[in-house]
Design goal:
The structure is a homodimer.
Chain A lengths: L3 E9 L4 H16 L4 E9 L5 E8 L2 H7 L3 H10 L3 E7 L1 E7 L2
Helix pairs in contact in A: 1-3
């Protein structure tokens, strides 16, 4: 089974990045118990004041898809949504490396 | 001490992405023994045929800087350089998350 990675770019509503980042950090506790999630790291972009980047690595595409069905994850996404102006990202295929 | 993250974007010389990725995967063995490196993952961009993205997380900026003085790392960078057309990336500050 191939591992699955995502680079998500979330542009917060102006001035709301810190609040959004805080909510997403709280979500990482939820994800800590989630099967198949190897890492999920939230970063602030240094050169774009409203942007967060979230890098995720999962055991499989299916494990990621299953997480989106989880009730706590859905509830979190619903709470974050009003703070997000735009969601995008970069499509990547992970090859390997340290911590893979 | 703050952790340090990098999103490096490497554009290979046309047609050389696979070769460059292979060299960098070999380097991850070198980095596996390297103090302070939490992860170092190599990805192919799905929508740009010559692009690799490398995400790195280090215990500190100093640990990352020290790795660049390592003889094996310098030798690897030297071998990769002819395959790289352009090096850039996104400056980020890691906040936390699972696997942090």
């Amino acid at each position: 089974m191939s591992k699955f990675a995502m680079f998500g770019k979330l542009t917060a509503v102006p001035g709301k990045r810190e609040e959004l980042g805080g909510m997403m950090l709280a979500s990482s506790d939820t994800l800590s118990g989630m099967e198949g999630c190897i890492y999920y790291i939230i970063h602030e972009a240094e050169e774009e004041p409203d942007v967060l980047w979230v890098t995720e690595l999962w055991e499989s595409k299916e494990a990621h898809a299953a997480s989106l069905q989880n009730e706590q994850v859905r509830e979190l996404i619903g709470r974050c949504r009003p703070l997000i102006a735009e969601a995008g990202g970069i499509k990547v295929k992970p090859l390997g490396g340290k911590g893979f």
